[in-house]
Every structure is written in C-alpha cells, then in structure tokens.
Amino acid sequence: VSRKDFQAVSPMSGYEDLPGWSAFYESQLSVEEAETLYPRRVTAVHRESLECLTADGTIRLPITTALAEHGVTVGDWVLTERESVEVARVLERKTLLKRGKARRTGRGDGGDEENVQLIAANIDTLFIMSSCNADFSIARLERYVALARQAGVEPVVLLTKEDIACGDPATYINEAAELQDVQVSTIDATSPEAAERLAPWCRPGQTIALVGSSGVGKSTLANTLTGLNITTRAIREVDAKGVHTTTSRSMHPMSGGGWLIDSPGIRSVGLVESGKEEAVDEVFEDITDLATRCKFSNCRHENEPGCAVKVAVSADRLQRWRALQQKNGMTTPKSHKARDAKKDAKISKHLRTKGDRKSKHK
What we know:
This protein is α/β, with parallel strands linked by helices. Among the domains are: 23-90, CATH 2.40.50.140; 123-231 and 249-268, P-loop containing nucleotide triphosphate hydrolases (Rossmann fold, 3-Layer(aba) Sandwich); 285-328, no CATH class. It is 32% helix and 21% strand. The chain contains 13 helices and 15 strands. α5 (138-151) packs across α9. The model is unreliable at 1-10, 104-113, 230-247 and 335-340 (pLDDT under 50).
C-alpha cells in the first residue's frame, strides 16, 4: 500500500492546516502510524500534563515517566491514537532551542552529567529582545545569538522602548550592529507598526520564539502580535520594567498567521556540549577568520607577535569572545588546520541557511 493510497482516509487528512505541520514531520510516519495515529502540537507544558493543539481544538495529555525521561517542550509534535491520551512518540525535531545549565555530578561513575533545559522546539526564528536603556548588554545578546546558531534558528534582535532610552538610541543600535549576520531592528512593542515590521517572520506556517531578560517587553510584543490582552502596569522609570512577567512558556496564534512562543526571562544562557564551538565561531566570525592569519598556529591572541586578531579586533570584543568561551568550557586554542576545516564547513552551512532565508521571505 502506497502513502498516496491511504492519505484520503488517514488521520493525516486536514492536519496540513495545523501550525507548522509539514512534509518533514509527515515523512517520519510509517504507513501504519499514518493510518492510526494523530499528530498534536504541544502549546504548553505543565508539571504533570501537556496542552496540545489538534485539528478539532485543544486537549490535555498526561506526562508519563517515559515522556518525562525523553523530554518534551513547547512546539514539539507528538502522536496519539484518536481516543487515547497516551503519547505514542515524539516526532524528530526540525530545530531545538535548549540551554546548558550548571553541571551536576553523575551517580556511580563519578563523572559529570550535562543538565539541559529544553526551551522550544520546531521554531523558525528567535526574536531576541533588549531594552534601549541601562539593561542593554551586547554580551548578553551575543549569548542569545550563540544559542540560536546552535539550534539552527535564525536570530533577529529587537531593541525595545527606545522612547525612554537612557541617552541616544543610536548608541544601542550601533553597538548591536557588531553582531555578525544578524538583523537588528528598533520597535515600539505597543504599536501596530511593530507587527507590520515583523510580518516577514510571522507568516502562516512559521513559528517564532521570544527571549530576553525579564521586563524588556516580551509580553507586550506578544500582545501586539497575537491580539491577546495581558495586562501590564505602568513602567517604573528607574529600570523601565512593567509588572507582567511570564513564568511559563506557551504558544499562541499570531494575527499574521504564524505562531508565537513566549518564554520567561532566562537568567543564565549556557550552550550545550554538542556544536558549541561552531556556534561561538559563528557569533565571532571576524575573530575566527582573522585567527587563520596569525603567525603561530596555537596563538592565544594575547601578547604573541604576528597576531592578526589583536591588530584588528577591539579589546572589548576580544574580551567578550574569551568570556563566552570560558563560560562554556572552551579554553584550548585550535590549530590553523582545524580552524580552516571548521571554517569551510561553516561557510557551506551559512550559504545553505542564507538560501533558505531568501526563499522564506519571498
């Protein structure tokens, strides 16, 4: 029996309209699964249950021990039988935004076990929000961009509340412009113009996630993009923070047809082990490229003669690069040969991603 033969009567019928459902997920189903199982998209995760969207509305599914051990997060696709509340399996993710937390000592072998927190799955774009005031931190933005690069998600930086900035907003814009291959935009999160400006990322089939420190306007922007009405109190002048703070992640439909995941403020942004070096290299692409021109293959870019990095990169940026490496346990310089190999791989990946973005925004 071919897939074409059973599509008309299978549970998949009508599910092409669910937010983000695509051939990527449908292709993972066996013939038997496509005939008997139904896809549900996770819109919220609670302590003991999931809220999921179906073709007929929303349902709650219990988080079993097996599901908890596997890990599930907002944006995931899960499969169940029509009348069952037990998740048969979680589909492979197209993208996964996650962060490494403080390590804990593993039991039995005396080793360390990485503690990973899942943030959101199957998203296309990460909106990274920062206020144009004393809370602004280019180092924090670089950490969020690294998080997006590691997940294979497009980062877009949004600078908010420029109307109450501490000084000239252009100062923050110019500093954010140091980010490599990242679009930066200033917005008034309360204005309908914000939705118009962000429309290319919020079209039907697209899923975005909002991240940033508490109080930068994530929920205000979520209201603007979705039409929700989450009350925020007057802004305090000292730190420009509203009273509303999101405490859990949830997914909501946007007016433009896409879906949005609003998340709590993340206090610490750490990268998971797999792919962390490549992610940092992408954020500091200028340093990675210049390092191949250093006189010594093991140059640490400190006081070595013939260091191309020290000559061309500002001390502040170089310090932020070192700090991000050290925070994520990356302290050993790579040889020119190793850097060149990773650079070639990075260029290929960049060209593929760039092509995908052009197709998406047409």
